[in-house]
Design brief:
By secondary structure, the protein is α/β, with parallel strands linked by helices. The chain has helices spanning 32-37, 48-54, 93-110, 120-127, 161-175, and strands at residues 23-27, 75-79, 114-118, 135-136, 146-150. InterPro entries: MUG/TDG, Uracil-DNA_glycosylase-like, Uracil-DNA_glycosylase-like_sf.
Length: 182
């Protein structure tokens, strides 16, 4: 049974973008839960907020409802496709094609220090590269923006959490000036 204040309408989620951001996190698209509540990474089975905190990217554990607060930390959010779905398998080829163009325009406009793709699949759809490794990528699509590929934060990912966090720690080391892209 649904709580009275919980919306059943599923909507696109507003991007959290601004000029001068250190990182823009880019997902496939919002989950149904995110579309219902209007916040990024809102599915309780998604580990995104725990990963950010465990990797040192955030000073405390944030909740999805606080996603707009991360702009103050220099972090933004967008997706390659805006339409919420149950899973990435529900995204059409046409949506990806349109999303690539829109995402590139956003990155060219806002020019974050790092475009962090939350999942290899997100990056391969954006870049059209067939093989990518975790971490910083060579030959960025938008010149002057570091492209970083991190594991998906979905609860369905079978990679050990410690390995996922270690990859995000490399991103933290870069944005805090401890390391440079390899």
């Amino acid at each position: 049974m649904r709580e009275a204040n919980e919306s059943t309408e599923i909507q696109e989620i507003a991007d959290h973008l601004d000029f001068g951001l250190s990182i823009v996190f880019i997902g496939f698209n919002p989950s149904i839960r995110s579309g219902q509540v209007g916040h990024h990474y809102a599915n309780p089975r998604n580990n995104f907020w725990r990963i950010l905190h465990s990797s040192g990217l955030t000073p405390r554990l944030y909740q999805a409802s606080e996603d707009g607060e991360l702009l103050k930390l220099g972090y933004g959010f967008t997706n390659i496709v805006a339409r919420p779905t149950k899973g990435a398998e529900d995204i059409t080829r046409e949506e990806y094609a349109e999303g690539r163009t829109i995402l590139r325009a956003k990155l060219e406009k806002y020019r974050p220090g790092v475009a962090c793709f939350v999942g290899k699949g997100v990056y391969t759809e954006y870049s059209r590269k067939s093989q990518v490794e975790w971490g910083f990528q060579e030959n960025p699509v938008v010149e002057g923006i570091h492209e970083f590929v991190a594991p998906s934060s979905s609860g369905l990912v079978r990679m050990p959490m410690s390995e996922i966090v270690d990859i995000y720690k490399k991103l933290n080391a870069f944005v805090t000036g401890i390391s440079t892209p390899e």
